[in-house]
Each structure stands twice: as C-alpha cells, then as structure tokens.
Amino acid sequence: MQPQLVTTPRKLPVFVFPQNITFFLDDQSTHKQVLTLYNPYDFPIRFKVLCTAPNKYKVVEPEGTIKARYCIDIVVRHTALVFSNCNVVDKFRIQMQEHPTKQAIGQRDVEAKLLPGTTEAAGRSTPDPEMFQQLPINETRQQQSYALIAQNRAINKYTLKPPRSKHDLFRGNIQNKNTEIYLSSDMNYVMDKGGTNYIALIAGIICIVGLLLPTEGEQNNRVPDYLHLSINFKLIFSFVLGMVTIITLRL
Fold first, then answer.
1. Domain boundaries in the chain?
2. Whole-structure pTM value
3. pLDDT in tens, the chain (251 residues)
4. In the sheet where 63-66 sits, what is the strand order?
5. Are 151 and 188 in contact (CB under 8 A)?
6. Hey, what's the torsion of the CAs at 120, 124, 127, 131, to 10 degrees?
7. Which positions, given as ranges, span the membrane (predicted)?
8. Which of 80, 111, 157, 162 is the most exposed place for a label (fewest CB within 10 A)?
9. C-alpha–C-alpha distance, residues 17 and 247, integer Å
C-alpha cells in the first residue's frame, strides 16, 4: 500500500480596500461602509468575513465566491451606535479559501472604529495620520544660504596665498610667515567698474620710486642724504612690488 502524499496548503496574499474603516457617531452617512475584495488570480476563490464583535455590525453577504480576475463589494453597517462604543477598535478578518475545497489560503485583518462627532470635526481636531503633505519651505533662509555660498566663492577667487619663503641677507634671516593678501567681496579695496585696484597701483608706484632712489653709500648730490635707502628697504620694496604685480595680473 503506497503512502498518501500530504500537500502543504498554499498561502496567497489577500487584497482588500480600504485597510481600515471609520464610523462617526453623529454622521449618518458614515454608518455604512464598503469593503472591496479583489481576486487577481486566474481561478475563483471563496471568501468569508469574520469579526471580533459580531453583535455590533451587520455584513451583507459575509461569505461567497469571487470569480477569477474579479472584485466584489461587501457592505458593513454599524448597528451599535452608542457613545460607550466610541474609540473601541474592532477587527474584521477577510479569510480566503480554495474553491470548492474551502481550504484557507490567506487572510487579511481590517480595523474598524467608531469615533464621536462628525467627519469634518474630526478632520479639524486630529489630522489623518496617513495623509502626507508637503513641508513649508523657508525661502528667506534658502536665499541667505545661496548668498553666503556666492560670497565665499568670490573671496576664494580673489585670495592669494604665497608660499612660505626664507632668505639669508647679510647674516640676518628674513622669514615670510604665511603672507596672505585678501581682496574681500564687500569691496574693502576700492575698485572701479573696470576692475582697477587703486591701492595696488599706488603701492606699486611707491615701490618703484623707492627702488629708483639711491642706495646708502652712493654719492648723489641731487638727492638728500635722508632719501638714501638701505639695501634692506629696497629688498622689501622689491618683494612688495612683486606681490602687487601678481595681484594685478590675477585681476
């Protein structure tokens, strides 16, 4: 005698809309709700509606058959409309069965609740937790952020950071420590519409004049002695003139 094969019952998802139903005590239009059961499969299925509080509800056609690729509507009516039943969560279980064996193949629970008042009053007091809305946009803060980004870009564009250098002059060390020349975006340096930097231009002229003056120790009767500059001063003028030239070319 061959042993009989035991088949495991298959489980299929159950499609029901809506996922929960709400009744309002003072709104008669909500005392009757509709549940839609879907059968997207290629074979007919049976359904059966169960409830945790059957004495409070009346369901039209609590069981039946759904054709293949078809849907049906079942009407659920609340029959215990008293204030003591408000805010109590009941559940309906939609059980799907094979046709015609009536073997359970899936189920879905739907919550039901009775609320006091009407739909409009409940909507004003407690918003629907499933309704998603767009958040407000702070346009002023966003514009300030864009302005700050543009200002930082302007500062970075006109910022010059020369490398650190070290020179030995007459047994003395002249060390340039991270010299930075900034041209800020708020027009700290006076510039015309053509982009001319008058401060850099004046500094360059002063450096050129200083370099043209005679050096200490030279004999020149045309220039007074107090205008004879030392070599260290002329080196400083040369360095500043070079920096001014770089700034002018970058502009």
1. 15-120, 194-213+228-250
2. 0.46
3. 445 544 556 789 999 999 999 999 999 999 999 999 999 999 999 999 999 999 999 998 899 999 999 999 999 999 999 999 999 999 999 999 998 888 889 999 999 999 998 877 665 555 556 666 666 666 556 666 666 677 667 666 555 444 444 444 334 443 444 434 343 444 344 344 445 677 878 888 888 887 887 887 777 777 777 777 788 888 888 888 888 888 777 75
4. 20-24, 104-115, 89-98, 45-51, 63-66
5. no
6. 60
7. 195-214, 226-249
8. 157
9. 72
14 contact partners, CB below 8 Å, separation of at least 6: 94, 96, 106, 107, 108
Q: How long, in residues, is the chain? A: 251
Lookup result for tokens 């500059």: 229
CATH superfamily for domain 15-120: Immunoglobulins (2.60.40.10)
